[in-house]
Structure to design on (216 residues):
């Protein structure tokens, strides 16, 4: 089951406008020397401030894909905390996932959102299905595999109109990444929703590990 949060409100926009960068990359973004998130990845730079993502990708959306209650035994008794997994994306080739823990639900979501933004990545889309062979970016350029924990996922390109043939968690990840047609196979303990979602994101990252003829 997934939970959706609305886009950033006016108070958060004011926070971005009043943002004071703490890193060199943040200063370059605030000064306008870096104008896109793709340029950061081309330069192989590390994002260490979530405000960088808020500044460059204002249309970022997020969804909570997993909520778990965890507890530990201490001298004072049992302490319970929320563990939340959040997926962020702009539905146009950008995806990220993060997990946060807190004693309350809302702070856990915010912590997961920050980590998802710091783990942001870009993916390659295309039409790798022999049944379609169009030039639109609606599917994957080729089959990819991902793994997280005991969960393994294989994603395969599908022709236009097929839709997302996968579980609800996979549909959420692929939709936020901007993929509308794909087939999938899954192996392992897929009931572990957090690892299931991370396996999908890991598979999407592999779309940039092979150069296609279009990139020659």
């Amino acid at each position: 089951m997934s939970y959706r949060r609305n886009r950033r409100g006016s108070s958060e926009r004011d926070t971005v406008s009043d943002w004071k960068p703490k890193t060199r990359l943040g200063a370059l973004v605030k000064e306008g020397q870096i104008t896109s998130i793709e340029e950061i990845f081309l330069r192989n730079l590390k994002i260490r401030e979530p405000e960088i993502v808020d500044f460059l990708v204002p249309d970022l959306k997020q969804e909570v894909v997993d909520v778990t209650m965890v507890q530990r035994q201490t001298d004072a008794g049992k302490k319970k905390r929320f563990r939340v997994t959040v997926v962020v994306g702009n539905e146009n080739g950008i995806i990220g996932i993060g997990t946060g823990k807190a004693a309350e639900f809302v702070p856990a979501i915010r912590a997961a959102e920050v980590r998802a933004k710091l783990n942001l990545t870009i993916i390659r889309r295309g039409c790798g299905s022999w049944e379609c062979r169009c030039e639109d970016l609606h599917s994957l350029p080729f089959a990819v595999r991902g793994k997280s924990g005991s969960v393994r996922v294989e994603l395969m390109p599908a022709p236009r109109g097929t839709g997302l043939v996968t579980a609800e968690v996979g549909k959420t990840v692929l939709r936020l990444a901007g993929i509308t047609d794909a087939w999938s196979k899954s192996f392992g303990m897929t009931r572990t929703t957090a690892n299931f979602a991370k396996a999908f994101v890991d598979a999407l990252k592999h779309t940039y590990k092979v150069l296609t003829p279009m990139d020659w």
